Amino acid sequence: MTTSSQRAGRFLQQVGVAIGFLLLWELIVRVLQVPKFIVPSPYDVLLSIWLGFKSGVFLTNGWYTLSATLIGFAIGSLIGFVLGVLVSQVDVLYRLLYPYVVAFQTVPKVAIAPLVVIWFGFGIGSKIAMALMICFFPVVVNTIEGLRSVNPERIMLLRSYSASRFDIFRFVELPAALPFIFAGLDIGIVLAVIGTVVGEFVGSTAGLGYVLMKFNHEIDIAGVFASIVVLSVLGVLLHLILRVVQERVVFWAKPGTTIGA
Amino acid sequence: MPSIDVRRLTKEYHKQKGGQYRALSDLDFEVSKGEFVSVVGPSGCGKSTLMKIVAGLIPYTTGTVAIDGRPVVGPDRNVGVVFQDPLLLEWRNVTENVMLPIQVLRLPRADYQAKCDALLDMTGLRQFADHYPRELSGGMQQRVAICRALVFDPAILLMDEPFGALDAMTRDYMNLELLKLWDRSRKTIVLITHSISEAVFLSDRVYVMSQSPGTIKDIVTIDLPRPRTLDVCATPRFGEYVAGIRAHFDALFQERTRACVAERAEEEAVR
Fold first, then answer.
1. Nearest CA of chain B to the CA of A94: how many Å?
2. Domain count across chain A
3. Over the stretch A208-248, which tens digit does the pLDDT of each residue have?
4. Which of A149, B19, B54, B105 has the least C-beta neighbours within 10 A?
5. Owning domain of residue A169
6. Contact (CB, 8 A) for A199 and A131
7. Of B91, B104, B134, the CB nearest to A158
8. Residue of chain A with shortest Cα separation from B150
9. ipTM greater than 0.90
């Protein structure tokens, strides 16, 4: 057991490592006089972040990226969940579709981005489609695996009360699969951000990915770094929110005992 | 009319490599109302299969199986089952786990809450009613499972090695609890076990099963006075019953060893 003071101590050490790293970076850039357009100093990056928020560039474009990510994630994981339930419950579907789900999972979705932009245009539609497509797979695979890995004895227990197929699903299979499903959602939300940004790279007029590319063309490398930081923070926040929801909903499962995809 | 009536029961499985495997062969099994019967046998003799067939959970090949005179075609409302594993649902607390059958059977929850509380009282789990399974010991989990099997008041209780995973002392305690419970409710109880002394201690009659094919080798009536306490285990009569049943298994074991040796010799001869 670690005490809270031990935990606080470890946290301080971790923060110390980060501060040390930033100071070292600052030092190297200054001593070696690395040009700003190759590697900016942490100070330049911080300044860029500040300016980006002050001018509203990060807020408006961050909102764009966030909404595309969340809409894509919501639709993608809903479709993934429903399809996962159908495939796991109907043996014919499992036999016919599951190999394809697994096969498609290995297709690099990023490579499809140019096509998606052609099909859905330069607007938010293509970003939502990218986020949707990329977060769909971990959710569907985890849903199927979770539902199919239920201890058959528990199903027999429910059958001993003459339970209907739906009762077995409702009382045993779905709750037992929830830790798996949440593991899928957790991977999915982080991937959804990546999907949106890739969509914005390929063709867009807004979003953090678009801003990042714009800074890159203007050789404002501090701006590029600033965009990366903002995007990372967005990703981490979404992941943490999902973790909190997971700990509430799947309170009986210890985090880390679930599988990923 | 017997509570459980099994006649000439045969159960065959399809082997994966093709062909049939006979798990139960020509088996007769009968339990009167309110009787406590145990089934003992080596692992793999088909005693769990027998229980699952009586519970209506798996189909059988030939023969007849009836509960209270009605042929078994599926799970029966009058039968409660306790499995070797407690099979508690981790996302439900003790009360919710015990009330699970009430929910599934669509019985009015309010009518059975008192029954649930009484069972938890009887098994000493009342103060753990709001606890989740992972906070309970193995023995407590199995007691919850027993409460769950009894909450809808079935007339018959089928138990498949319910105490197999418990340590010896907890097991003794659970046996006493089970006897008290049976004393008060006078339910028909069938206990599947591989512990001969447990079977003798608890039962009115003990069915001794043999292996491949699974069938009844002997039926031993245990004529020990009731109510029984653990002291009865130290009596010569108790020892005689245990020794008598064990002799069956010794014979079975020797037979199997002989068969093995013969087979080996045959192989050698062919070579």
1. 21
2. 2
3. 999 999 999 999 999 999 999 999 999 999 999 999 999 99
4. B19
5. 37-249
6. yes
7. B104
8. A161
9. no
